[in-house]
């Protein structure tokens, strides 16, 4: 019996892992284990022998079971210690910085423009980017033979074979949005239409997709004087220049009559552009009184109503306001320039220029 004890207690102490320990348990105290077989022998012993061997065998079985349990706990401890050693985590390491998104200058400037015109009672209208040629051209007093159709560098959609109707176009300006707004709301109306427009043109100052905001105000007696005040008020708020000076130059657009291009006072002194001071002028938008034919296309009676319209390029306004020299930065997948020009994720524009959540 002592041999047995030594054999198993020693083997249990040396067991390398749980499967080895289980193997020993089966060999010693399992149903067919050595100790169990010896206990079965008790039945064949004399009462005296049994009295002597019974307690010894029970004690041996208990001793082996305790050794098994103790070794099992020790193995589990060792496994845990090994995991703690292997899966060690340095909680003092600095966190990995997460790349933070930033608002795009065109989105920010669109929000700024929208807020300024909202303050003057303009609502925002949106419309489709794929337009019929009627909404994009005819309704704006640009008939098929008009040279402006060529000047717009239009992208045409394709028609199915045998379909001879004029093709749809990618809108070349947001003006069709205002035609739709006039048809839906009637007069009086005060809307701006910001959004994407498309022209087949690409160089340092032109991209095939760019952004415009156009405005429209129709009432009983809205005049060029109202136009002048609204645009001055807009430029004062947008460029943050008090007493901003604008210059109206006679021009021509098919959809307005009379028409004017509008310049803002600026200076190029020292090679950098300053808006609102100096002796130079910078063209920033086009405008005019809505042509009677355009009012009619919008379902508004030109003998009862009149008003002004204007249009400007948002990308260009963003470049001017934030000093971004190259339009193509807007399409660069390397976004470091955004931070360079001070655009951060938290910059949400408000009329007061404060932070809002
Ligand atoms: C309706 C009637 C009239 C919008 C106008 C301009 C003049 C203009 C250019 C500015 C820079 C386009 O992005 S740009 O190249 N726009 O000069 N836009 S008047 O006139 C309208 C619009 C809608 C119903």
TrEMBL record:
Source organism superkingdom: Bacteria
Aminoacyl-transfer RNA synthetases class-II family profile domain sequence ranges: 116-349
Q: What cofactor(s) does the depicted protein rely on? A: Mg(2+)
The UniProt transmembrane annotation reads none
Q: Where in the cell is it found?
A: Cytoplasm
EC numbers for this chain: 6.1.1.20
Looking at its record, which EC class is this enzyme? ligase
Q: According to its UniProt record, which reaction does this protein catalyse?
A: tRNA(Phe) + L-phenylalanine + ATP = L-phenylalanyl-tRNA(Phe) + AMP + diphosphate + H(+)
Task: For this UniProt record, give its keywords in alphabetical order, as a comma-separated list.
Answer: Aminoacyl-tRNA synthetase, ATP-binding, Cytoplasm, Ligase, Magnesium, Metal-binding, Nucleotide-binding, Protein biosynthesis
Binding annotation for Mg(2+): 257
Chief localization class?
A: cytoplasm
CDD domains on file: PheRS_alpha_core
Q: Which GO terms describe its molecular function?
A: ligase activity
Into which family does the record put it?
Belongs to the class-II aminoacyl-tRNA synthetase family. Phe-tRNA synthetase alpha subunit type 1 subfamily.
Q: How does it assemble?
A: Tetramer of two alpha and two beta subunits.
Q: Supply the HAMAP family for this chain.
A: Phe_tRNA_synth_alpha1 (MF_00281)
Q: By its UniProt entry, which PANTHER family does this protein fall under? A: PHENYLALANINE--TRNA LIGASE, MITOCHONDRIAL, PHENYLALANYL-TRNA SYNTHETASE
Protein name as it appears in the record: Phenylalanine--tRNA ligase alpha subunit
Q: Which species?
A: Rhodovulum viride
Gene encoding the protein: pheS
